[in-house]
Amino acid sequence: MAKFHPRVDLLTEYVAGILPLAQSACISAHLNYCPQCQQQSARLQDLGAVLFDSLTPVPVGDALLNTVLARLDEEPPLSYRRAQDPAVGRLPALLQRLMKGDFSELSWNKITSSLRISYLKTGDPGYEFALYHIKAGGKIPEHTHRGSEMTLVLQGGFSDAAGSYHEGDFLFREASDTHAPTALQSEDCICLAVLDAPLRFTSWKYRWMNPFLQLRAG
Amino acid sequence: MVEKRNDSASDGWQGPTGRRTDEWSECLTQIAATGDRAAFTRFFRHFAPLIKAFALSGSSLSAAHADELVQEVMLKAWQKASAFNPEKAAASTWVYTIARNCRTDMFRRLQKFDTPLAADDFMPDQEPSEPFAMLQSRRSRDTIHALMGTLPPDQAQILAKVYMEGKSHAEAAAELDLPLGTVKSRVRLAIQKLQIQIDR
User: Fold this and answer.
1) Crossing angle, helix B23-34 and helix B91-110, to 10 degrees?
2) What's the CATH number where B103 sits?
C-alpha cells in the first residue's frame, strides 16, 4: 500500500482535468496503486458534479438537438482495449500503452554505471516523461531541480535523506530541492519521473554532464 | 459564476440499499435499454444547457467550440449509455465526467498536442468496488450540496475557477492577484469544510 501521496490540492487539479498531460498520467498511474487516493478522487469528482449541476444553464437551440439526433446512428469510434500482457501486467494500463512492450524492449540511455533512463512519448510538449532504472544499491548522483519533479516508484524502491519509498509511492518535488536517491539493496528500482526542466547534478564528479542534460519533452 | 440551486427533490433516493431513483438516472437507464429517442431528447434538453455553460465558463472556449462540445458529449452519452451503472454514480456525475474528459481532449486538440492518449485513458484501471462506494458517493454529494452554501465566497470562487473554468491554481492566483499558496490553502480549506477530506 502506497505511503506517499499527492497532496489534496494537486489531486483537485488532476480531477478537474487541468493538470498537464504528462503529470496527469503520473497521478493516474499512482491511483492504480492507491485505493485511498482513488477514494479521495471520487469525492473530489462528486464535488465537480455538484458544481456542474449548479451552473446557470445556457440555452441551446433545437438546431443543435436535431444535429445530434441525426448523428445517433453513427458507429461509435473504436475504443482502446487494455493490454493483458502478464509480463507487465502489474503496471497501470496507461503506462503499458506508452511503453508498447516490457522494460527489456525499451531503448535505454546509460547515464552512470548504475543509472539508465528511457524516455517515453506522451505528446506533452512541456514535460519529460521517463523511466529511471537504478541498479540495486545504486545511487543517482546528488542533483537539484530547475523545475518540478514527480516521481512514482513502479518496482523495487529507493531512499534519500527524507525517507524510503516503495512500489506505488508518489513524490512531488519543487525546484531547488537537492537529493541523492539510492536504490534499495535488495532489488533494482524502476521509477517514473516527470520533469519540466532538466536535472542538474551538484556533485563535482558529474557536474560536467549538466550541459548535456537536455529536457526530452514531447 | 456558480449559483446554488436547491433542487434536491429531483435528486432523491431511497433507503440505505443505495438504489438510485433520480429522474435522470432513470432516463439514462431507459435510453440504454430501449434506445428511446424521446427519452434522449428530454435528457438533452436538461443536460445540453449545463454542458454549454460548462464549456463557456471563464470563456475558456468560443461559442462554436462550446456547441461542438455539447454535440460530442451528448453523442458519447448516447453511445455509452449501456455502460452507465446507476448503482455507482448519479447520471449527472456521469455526464459531468464525460464533459470534463471531452473538454480536456478539446483543449489538447486546440493546442495541437500529438498524443496517443485521450482523457478516458486516464481513468484508473479498476474502480473502487467496495459495496459502500456508491452509498458514500451518494452521501458525499448530499453533504457537499448542503454545505456548499456555508463556504466563504473566496473559497467557493476558487472552486468554481478550478472545476468549471478549468484554471490551474497558478492561473487562478494570477487572475485574482493572490499568492499561489493562498489559492492552494483555500482549496484545502474548502475540501475540509465540505467534509470530503479522506485520511491517506
Assistant:
1) 70
2) 1.10.1740.10
